[in-house]
Amino acid sequence: MNVAEITVTFSYLGALLIWTFINSRGLTVGLWANRAAHLATSQTPLIVALAGKNNIVTLLTGIGYEKLNVLHRASARSTLILIWVHAFGRWRLGLHGYASLDEVDVRFGVVSMAAFSLGVLLSVRPIRNMAYEAFLISHIILVAMYLIFGLFHVPEVKYRFWPALAIWALDRLLRVLRTIILNKLWIYIFPIGKRFDDATLERVSSDTVRLTVRRSFKWRSGQHAYILAPSIASLPFEAHPFTIASVYSEDNHKEGRSQEVVFIIRGRDGFTRRLLEASETRESVPIVIDGPYGAPPRLSHYSTSILIAGGSGVSYTLPLLLDLVRQVKSDNGVAQRVLFVWVVRSPSHIDWIDKLLQQAVQDCPPTMQLSVKIYVTQRSLPELPHKNAVIGDTTPIEEKKSLAELSTASLASSRKARVLSGRPDISMILKEELSCASGRVSIDVSGPSALADATRDALVACNEAQPAAVLRGLPRTTLHIE
Hints:
It is an enzyme of class 1 (oxidoreductase). With 482 residues, the protein is α/β, with parallel strands linked by helices.
């Protein structure tokens, strides 16, 4: 957990504990034990609502479900504490009479508590990242057990459990309907209209594939979608989120043409590993898309944008860059300067987005200063003229050939693009950019957690990004970590 999540969790828990013990007549056990149970069950609909992809909170506030997930975890952890406070109180009063373990409703309560406790325990980040598919299945089963057995434990407060079940069912129904409409799945039953072609698989490096599919839905740069690939998935209805690496075209939409939706997917384990292996023998694969989701920042009102990505995180920052270039070119944006930083492990990874990055560099209007810096961290690199070699017309032809693995000739011909060896000094980069920025500044980061932490720490240590800096006339800075 990061500092923000810890702060939210303890604040949430503190408020609930105050409500639990305040005015409990000298901490009378029976009062605070029952009150803890009532507060815990009252949180149940909220916990389920905050976990849904389609929820009323996102609809009203515009905050993406992935951001609301912080509140989901905070409320769930706080509720777990309240459940155990209730159990401890009942134990203090004595497990006899109507509270005896021989009573069926008490046993239901124990099972409900055990299911909820295990669900929270298995959702901690290390376990979740280690086996996400197992986590997802167990999470659904354990939450269902908590709701059902909790309903039998205290049927008199069923009005707190049924809404949670209804919210979950509504979210699933909306996702199913959205998926059917976006992918024209009715065609497989009723042959009305033309079905979409399968997604194309292209191996762009030893561990990465580019998946391209055509669909007719609208999305914003930086949003993501869930991919279902029945022929590759190991479980029924297995879906995984990936950021859309392409930009939505309004012209195609007006002309009724489908859009090219691109995903850059790094093969690690599980589904992504199977997808990578499939690209060795197959050029296409049938997929189903559910989305788009997410509420990425709107950069059209920022004078300076700093886009920082690591590895496949570029699938988030690249569409933002392409969108900014298009907005400024059509006089719909105010961006004056954009810095695009990308950290990759191998020179071959540049091929993932070479054509799209070349397009951004070529289309960049003269009113916008664009600087592209690609850092290659692999030690065994072709020999560079010097540490910070600029890829441009001033580089001799012989040296350009030695850099062929670092960038294609088309990208290398631009003075706006630089390829550097080693890791970026995030602190220095931000300090330089913020010291000369004018107007509002947006910093958007996507990639490994180490890169996000480095950016966050650099901002904390940077005088130009402190809250008091605004009083000194320096621009306001906003950080967004995907």
